[in-house]
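Work Package 3 (structural annotation) set out to generate three-dimensional models for the target panel prioritized at the project kickoff. During this period the team completed the workflow that converts sequence records into discrete structure tokens, so that structures can be stored uniformly alongside our sequence database. As a representative example, we reproduce one entry of 219 residues exactly as it appears in the project archive.
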Amino acid sequence: MAENNEILEENNPEEETEKESVDSCKQTDENPAQEEAPKDQEETEESEESEEDAGEASDVQKDGSIKGFFKKKKDKKDEQIEELNDRVKRQMAEFENFRKRSEKEKTQMYDMGAKSMIEKVLPVIDNFERGLAAVPEDQKEDAFVTGMDKIYKQLLTELEAVGVKPIEAVGAAFDPEYHNAVMQVESNEYESGVVAQELQKGYLYKDSVVRHSMVAVVS
């Protein structure tokens, strides 16, 4: 009987094969994590890489936003500087205009004062001329007359130094800007429209009329 059993066992290799396949399946079922472990590791690595990429992207975005912030701040600062420069330039231009206007007004006021004083002095000049013209020929060499003549000439010299000069009248064409015609006369010496006689001398101060000449014009 024992021999028969051994023979049967030898004659059943299929059973051994089935048994080995069953054992291998059990081993596979018992350790499924070992086979799936590489997949999980790959997924973990991919997730880590994606997180790193996302982190880098967020850093780039953050850095870009910071740069944009500083750029806007710099642009605003440049605008403020430009606005201040324009304001300073306008103020300097206004000050320059004010300075020129003040100098012009000062000059005008000075000229007005000078003309006012000259107008008061001119009658004194007229009186000197009338008095010297009335001196007889035999008395013109007297010391008193000579002294008066020197004072008269000194006054004319000082007036000329400050810009006062007489207006040309006799022999010049009548000009209403400088002459004041008070009468018309007949003349064989001058043509019509020419000043033949000066009744009162006129004067200019820096090319501005202080007093018009009173003249007689040839008709």
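The beta strands are 164-166, 179-185, 195-200, 203-205, 208-211, 213-218.
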